[in-house]
Amino acid sequence: MTDAPAPAPGAPLRLFNSLTRQLEDFRPVHPGEARVYSCGPTVYNYQHIGNMRAYVFADTLGRTLAFKGYALRHIINITDVGHLTSDADAGDDKMEKAAASQGKSAWDIAAFYTAEFKRDLARLGVRDPAKWTVATDYVPRMIAFAQRIADAHCYQLDSGLYFDVSTVADYGRLARAVTDEGEGRIDEVEGKRHAADFAIWRRTPPGETRQMEWDSPWGRGAPGWHLECSVMGEAELGLPFDIHTGGIDHREIHHPNEIAQNQAWRGCGGLDCAEHSGARMWMHNNFLIARNDQGRGGKMSKSAGEFLRLQTLVDRGYHPLAYRLMCLQAHYRSELEFSWEGLGAALTRLKRLVMAAAAVREAGAVPVTDRRLADLLARFDAAVSDDLNTPIALTLIEEAAAMKKVDAGQKRTLLERMDGVLGLDLLTLSREALRVRPKGATIDETAIEATLARRKEARAARDFAASDALRDELGTAGVEVMDGDPLGWDWRLES
C-alpha cells in the first residue's frame, strides 16, 4: 500500500489520532481515497442530541475530506442486535429489552428507530453514507470471523465465546491501558480469565429463546457488540482503512475491544504501528454537556431517563440546523455545553448568515479570482485542515458573507465551497424556513398577519396606543414584531 499526499492543493490535512494522542498528517491507505467507518446507533430508542453530535462531527470530517479532493467512502453501521445495556458484558440485550417493554418484535423496534435516526440526520444536513451496514445482515460473516480467531485468541464458557485480551499486544492502548476506572465498568463473568476479556458470541441460556438468535459452533445465540464493527469495517472497507470515528465514550471499552479483534484477525503485532489496529486513525468527538437550572450538568445520556431529542428542539421553535451550527461553534474534541440560550444565539447567527447569502443566491457561480476572496478561501482551508477547526471556519464564512463590493458570482462560489464543508445549506435555506412554529404556540400565521394588518392601520391613523397594544398582544402569544424588516415578524423563543 502506497502513501499519497492530498490530491488537492492547500494546507496539509492534519487530524488528531486518539491512538497516538497526537496530530498527524492524513495519508490515505489507498491513494486518492478516504475510507471512513463511523460507529452507528443501537436502534432501541430515539437518539438524543448528544448522540447526534457524533454524526455532525463525522459528516464534517467527510465533507472536509471531499473538500480536500479525496474520493470518500463512508460507512455507518446500524446495531440491531448484540449491544447490552452496558458497554461491557453486562445486562440484557438492548433490542430484546425494548421489544419486551413495548410489546413489539425486535425487528419492528429496529425498523422504527432506524427510520427516526435517519430522519434526524437528514434534518441536520448529515449526508447519507456510501452504505448503511445493518448488523443482522452480517451474522454469517461474524461467525466466520470468530472461527478464524478462536483457536489462538478465544476460549469458551457456558455463557459463550470470550476473547482473551492477553493474546494481543498493547491491549487498551487507545484508552491508555486498562485503568482501575476502566476495569470498574466491566462486570465479572464467572470463568473469565481476565477482567477485561469480552464476549465474541453470547450463547442463549438454556430454556430461553431470543427473538434474534442464530446457530453457531459455540451454541445458539447472538454475536457480541464489539465483533459487529470489526466485521462490518473489514467487509466494506478492508483492513486497514483510513479513519474510524465515534464518541469519546467508545474510546474506553468498545474501540479497544474492536482493535484487539482486528489485531487477531490480521495476525499482526503491537500498536506502535497504528495500522495494526485496523485503522490508521481513530477519531473521537467529546460529550455534549447539558446545562440545568442549577448550572452546568453532566453528559447527556438515555440511561438518565429524560433526554433531549432533535424533535424537542423543533417543538420549541428551533430549526435543526441551528443545532448543527451550535455543534460547529465548538471544536469536536472539546466538550459542548448545551443551553437554550446558546441554541437561541446559534439560531440568530444562522439567520444572519442566511440573510447575507440571500444577496448572491441567484448569481451564477464563477471561479474565484478576486485576491481578497481567494485569501479567505485559503484561510478557510487552513482552518478546516487544522484538525477540523470549525469555530474559526465559521468566522471566515461570516467574513465572506459580509464582504462588500465583490463580484456576486465569485462570492457565491466562495460561500458554496465553504458551506460544502459546514453543511448549513446557506444558498437554499430561507429565513421563512427558519421560522419554525413552536409546538406550544397558541396563534397561527393567519391570525398573526391579521393582527399585523390591524396594527398597520393603527399606525397609519397615528393611534400609537392601539399599535403598541397590538404589538404587546402578539408578544404575549410568542410573536416578535420586526418593524422595518421585510420578514415582518418571527416567533419569539423563550428559554
Provide tags for this entry.
41% helix; four-stranded antiparallel β-sheet; five-stranded parallel β-sheet; 495 residues; single chain; 16 strands; alpha/beta; disordered N terminus; globular
Please explain how this structure is put together:
The chain has 495 residues and is of the alpha/beta class. Helices cover 41% and strands 15% of the residues. It is built from 16 helices and 16 strands. The chain has helices at 49-67, 94-102, 106-123, 139-153, 180-184, 225-237, 254-266, 310-315, 320-328, 340-358, 371-385, 390-402, 408-422, 431-434, 445-460, 464-476; strands spanning 14-17, 22-25, 33-38, 71-78, 131-134, 154-157, 160-163, 198-203, 221-223, 241-247, 279-285, 288-292, 295-299, 336-338, 479-481, 489-491. The protein has a five-stranded parallel beta sheet with strand order 5-4-3-10-11, sandwiched between helices. The chain has a four-stranded antiparallel beta sheet with strand order 6-7-8-9. Strand 3, helix 1 (49-67) and strand 4 form a beta-alpha-beta unit. Helix 12 packs antiparallel against helix 13 (408-422) and helix 15 (445-460) packs antiparallel against helix 16. The radius of gyration is 26 Å and the shape is globular. The protein starts with 13 loop residues before the first strand and ends with a strand. Residues 1-7 and 177-185 have low confidence and may be disordered.
